[in-house]
């Protein structure tokens, strides 16, 4: 097991793919040997962003996306004749980057986290850990993000504090157990194909 604390002051910021806003890049991975890291070389990305006005989502062919509101409430994603309901915080929705989506804000601006991956390159999962308890973690990369206040976790028998706004990146070579000890956390999990 390898752990790295990613501090909020070290996160980078970049424009949305469609230029409609700015996201905070918390962690990402690109194809091995990539010289220029861009959307075409992306394997996966975990990021946060404010949505302050209704508008279209970026078109991202070949990318699978998971999204969760972590601040505010009332977000609805309109896609053709369907709605992806994120009105309640810490609800995860899954969609593909090809879908044309327009946001609707029913109660003002929101803050969201996104976990996205190139289809076929990785399997992803995004869940809120709201109550103390244990869960299995498969081999792969796991990101424990503290969106509002400090949280504490245990991986197998080792305890880790995660300060507010920071993220603990956990690289697992074998299946393990994660326990939320205190606070609230968002867990993003990435399992690379092959």
TrEMBL record:
Question: Gene3D superfamilies per the record?
Answer: Jelly Rolls
- Per the record, the coiled-coil ranges are none
Q: Which domain of life is it from?
A: Bacteria
InterPro entries annotated for this entry? RmlC-like_jellyroll, RmlC_Cupin_sf, Uncharacterised_HutD/Ves
Name under which the protein is recorded: HutD family protein
């Amino acid at each position: 097991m390898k752990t790295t604390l990613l501090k909020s002051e070290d996160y980078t910021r970049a424009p949305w793919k469609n230029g409609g806003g700015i996201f905070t890049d918390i962690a990402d991975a690109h194809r091995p040997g990539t010289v220029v890291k861009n959307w075409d070389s992306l394997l996966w990305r975990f990021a946060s962003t404010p949505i302050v006005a209704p508008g279209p989502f970026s078109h991202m062919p070949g990318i699978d996306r998971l999204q969760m509101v972590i601040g505010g409430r009332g977000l609805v994603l309109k896609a053709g004749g369907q709605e992806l309901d994120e009105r309640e915080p810490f609800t995860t929705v899954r969609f593909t980057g090809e879908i044309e989506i327009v946001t609707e804000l029913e109660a003002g601006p929101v803050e969201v986290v996104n976990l996205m991956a190139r289809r076929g390159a990785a399997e992803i999962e995004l869940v809120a850990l709201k109550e103390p308890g244990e869960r299995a973690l498969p081999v792969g990369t796991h990101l424990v993000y503290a969106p509002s206040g400090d949280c504490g976790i245990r991986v197998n028998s080792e305890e880790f504090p995660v300060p507010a706004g920071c993220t603990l990146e956990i690289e697992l070579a074998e299946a393990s157990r994660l326990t939320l000890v205190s606070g609230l956390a968002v867990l993003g999990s990435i399992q690379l194909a092959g």
